[in-house]
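Quick question about two entries, pasted in order.
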Amino acid sequence: MLFRGIQRQLVPDEEGVYLIHDLRGVLYVGRSTNLQRRFDEHRLRPSNPYLIVALNHPFGEMRFSWIRTAVPDETDQLETGLIAWLQPACNRLTPKS
């Protein structure tokens, strides 16, 4: 099972930014209005081809972490900032500075 160490019930059904990571570091940063639903989508039917490869070939335990946010503007800024800072390998597009 992907995302060992976390149970679906622990993921909130609230808005936020999430990170998918293993021992290589952060592989993907995304945002969702419902983190629990997005967790299920990544777990059951990922669509990003780069992320599919990473999920099928983890290095150590694959993790799903999140930061809850209160408003969409905060969510957008946090996601953009994390992608620019971390430059995750599986994000399709990275913001231009």
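Here is the second entry:
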Amino acid sequence: MPSPSLALSTCWHADRTTDGATLLRQATDLGFSTVEISHNTRFSLWPGILATHQSTPTSPRIDVLHNFCPVPVELLRPHPNAYEFSDPRPTARRLAERHSFATLEAAASVGARFVVLHLGSAGPRHLVDPLESLALSGQLGTRPYVRKKISTIRTLEEAFHKAWPRVEEILLRLGEKASSLGLRLGLECREDLREIPPDDFWDTLFARLPAPTFGYWHDFGHAAAKHWLGFLDHAQHLRRLAPRIIGVHLHDYSPEKGDHLPLGHGTIPFAQLLPLIPPNTHFSLELSPDVSADDVRASLSWWKQNQPVRS
């Protein structure tokens, strides 16, 4: 079985590009034949993306759009959580649903296979900040840390159960539309602990959301941050969700520098984790805009040398 290719997420360069055709050409120039069009893709870039897709055979294949894409015109700055399915305000939920439907239509218009979704949030903001401070000061696993962790988990799980019915209602409607368009919806694991779902509840979600329309989208950096804080075991998490994994955001992570680092610049044990990803999974390289073009190329080279080989 051939090894998977690596797409470039345009989150790396969309903010500093003024033309959609250039956005795609820059990915090709860096050595990528496939792209993920990211949630920071302004509406002004979309005509060039669409025209290039339709008229330029050598342009990279567009496999993925990340909700919301293109950015809703009323937003002053791109943000994938600008509207949330979990919002208690009906007007905000309607906007989240409307712009998600628009992303599905945009994805179908360029022949994409996947749309990545954030599911919303529940619980107090900045709840994890004290835990990160304790961990960085060397108190990971101490009694104060564990007490705070248990309290945090209880608070977040209670908030999740209250918010989930609002989220599920919208997801089921999006799933019907996605299915009619031949799209699959990747539900992304998130780095903020208040974002839905708490990681112990993925099985519950997927018992209610049918395959193949709904799948799990694994983010290596987000999961690594939670592993460091003791909220999940990265390898165990991948083994448990492997049957529903359809896509991956690939980037490195370290507790000091954060995530969206070039591959090989952090602490993620890719040699142990990449073989746990099932065959035919989509991989997108999702790097910070601060990463240099040389490090983008180096990450692609790293991937070619370290990607999982399928027998």
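Reply: Strands lie at 6-9, 34-37, 61-66, 114-117, 184-188, 214-219, 245-250, 252-254, 258-261, 282-285. The chain has a mean pLDDT of 93. Hope that helps.
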